[in-house]
Amino acid sequence: MNGIFISLEGPDGAGKSTVLQAILPDLQNKYGEIVATREPGGVRVAEEIRHVILNPKNTEIDAKSELLLFAAARRVHLQSKVEPALAEGKMVIADRYIDSSVAYQGFGRGLGLEVVEWLNDFATDGLKPDLTLYFDIDTEVALERIKKNRSEDIDRLDMERAEMHRKVRAGYLEIVKSEPERFVTIDASQPLEKVIADSLKVIIERF
């Protein structure tokens, strides 16, 4: 595969999705067609799995079921959308990828790193991004953003206790330290314009 694969990671409320939409026009001007996608989702089957995972009514989904559903969605998404685009030499930017499972299910749910990393590897055949932007933000600030900006669209994971979200952030910080060559940390507590500018600068300098 000769395309460029970038993932955006961070706790809920960090602003990844907003930043992705904001940087797309500049990136398209520079690199041509950009395939912007998201996890879980991005293709029909994975979007259906996303609905199952995030539906607040689905309280019977336990941590292991959640992990397996994410892995299934990831596999379908990768085969149907990401890999074909990379094979065509395109830049693919995914709003979440493998590190989300490590942070949320490995650290947040306490399933442990070994099983999550094995399942990620199994689902993706070991494909990792060329670059991952990690959007870091204080847990309380992130939760306040969710409450303020998504009050009518709170999903099952948003409803978790603050302690779960603190574990997720701590997990992300550990992941970032483990692969410094792949990760670049973006301070997501800055004004949005600065976060957008920093993200764009990192991508253009790297590629």
From TrEMBL:
One GO BP: dUDP biosynthetic process
Domain Thymidylate kinase-like: 8-195
Transmembrane intervals: none
Keyword Kinase belongs to the record: yes
One CC-aspect GO term: cytosol
GO molecular function annotations of the record: ATP binding; dTMP kinase activity
Enzyme class: transferase
Name recorded for this polypeptide: Thymidylate kinase
The entry's keywords: ATP-binding, Kinase, Nucleotide biosynthesis, Nucleotide-binding, Transferase
A Pfam family reported for this protein in Swiss-Prot or TrEMBL: Thymidylate_kin
NCBIfam families: DTMP_kinase
Organism: Lactococcus fujiensis JCM 16395
Catalytic activity of the protein: dTMP + ATP = dTDP + ADP
PANTHER family: THYMIDYLATE KINASE (PTHR10344), UMP-CMP KINASE 2, MITOCHONDRIAL (PTHR10344:SF4)
Binding site for ATP: 10-17
Coiled coil start-end: none
E.C. no: 2.7.4.9
InterPro entries: P-loop_NTPase, Thymidylate_kin-like_dom, Thymidylate_kinase
Function noted in UniProt: Phosphorylation of dTMP to form dTDP in both de novo and salvage pathways of dTTP synthesis.
